[in-house]
Specification:
This protein is α+β, with helices and mostly antiparallel strands. It has helices at residues 5-8, 20-25, 68-77, 119-139, 201-212, 237-242, 245-251, 263-278; strands at 43-44, 47-51, 55-59, 63-67, 86-92, 98-104, 146-157, 162-171, 174-184, 189-195, 215-217.
């Protein structure tokens, strides 16, 4: 991929699901037993799900979880490029929204910008990057995306070491809400992506945040366990918002899948998951 593709990553986690409907059709009730999602090992709540060797997430009652390898299968079934960093998938059994966990081994990210995050400057950088990113979208046959502002300006919680923000935009006249959470750890950052429709975002956020409240890094990977001599990231909180860790992946030629949260695209994604879950009674999902 050309160097201009790095600008595409400046709009964090936006992808147009141009072909996801065909993926949904492939998981209908008359799908063959050879479907790649048939082998997914679902884990039911209440229990605990492992996110690689880095962290754990509690799986609430009436939720289901899939590990890293199975999350990759889900992404492929949705016809999304796999990043190789997927560690987990969490969703309510009714599947009105879902979460994908990924981990970037970037090194320790200093939070010394926590009191000086410039939302205006970051938004301008994101808009500038998006203009270049639109050139790539056009070449790929994807609709252009317009950034209209913050749905939620970047906010860093010093107690939880969580960085959150949400970008508002539109594509082909449809609303787009891109909600992001980054959980800092000793050796990198857990990237948490929420997928839901914009009209359901406000109702979903309390459940989403309640689920993340039960996230914890394993011993040795917690942010507070940093020791002198540990690997340091080459950027801070501001760069994490406007591009940060994804830039290296794009420069290396590994095009990262980026979620578009909103409009028909996400409805198709959620429809895929609903059909997937509908094929199996929850009683058939192993605990």
């Amino acid at each position: 991929m050309r160097s201009q593709s790095s600008a595409t990553s400046l709009l964090a986690f936006v992808l147009l699901f141009a072909t996801i409907v065909s993926a949904a059709d492939s998981t209908s009730k008359d799908a063959t037993k050879d479907s790649p999602v048939d082998g997914i090992k679902w884990q039911k709540g209440p229990s605990s799900g492992g996110l690689g060797n880095f962290a754990q997430i509690k799986i609430p009652e009436k939720y289901i979880f899939a590990g890293g390898e199975d999350t990759k299968l889900l992404m492929e079934a949705m016809q999304n490029p796999v990043s190789g960093r997927e560690l987990g998938f969490l969703a309510p059994e009714k599947a009105r929204w879902f979460i994908v966990f990924e981990y970037d081994d970037t090194g320790y990210i200093r939070d010394d910008e926590k009191g000086s995050l410039d939302a205006t400057a970051m938004l301008e950088s994101i808009k500038a990057g998006n203009e270049e990113g639109n050139k790539e979208r056009v070449e790929r046959g994807w609709p252009k995306l317009e950034i209209t502002g913050w749905e939620q300006p970047p906010h860093y919680d010093e107690k939880s070491n969580n960085l959150e923000w949400a970008i508002r935009g539109q594509s082909e006249g449809r609303p787009v809400v891109n909600f992001n959470t980054r959980i800092l750890g000793r050796g990198g950052v857990m990237r948490v992506t929420l997928v839901t429709g914009p009209e359901e975002l406000n109702a979903t956020l309390p459940q989403y945040k309640a689920a993340l409240a039960d996230f914890s890094y394993n011993s040795g990977h917690k942010y507070a366990e940093y020791r002198q001599g540990d690997k340091l990231a080459t950027y801070g909180l501001s760069a994490l918002v406007v591009g940060g860790a994804t830039a290296a992946a794009v420069k290396s030629g590994a095009f990262k899948w980026l979620w578009k949260v909103g409009g028909l695209a996400v409805l198709a994604a959620l429809g895929f998951v609903k059909k997937l879950f509908g094929r199996r009674k929850t009683d058939d999902m192993p605990a």
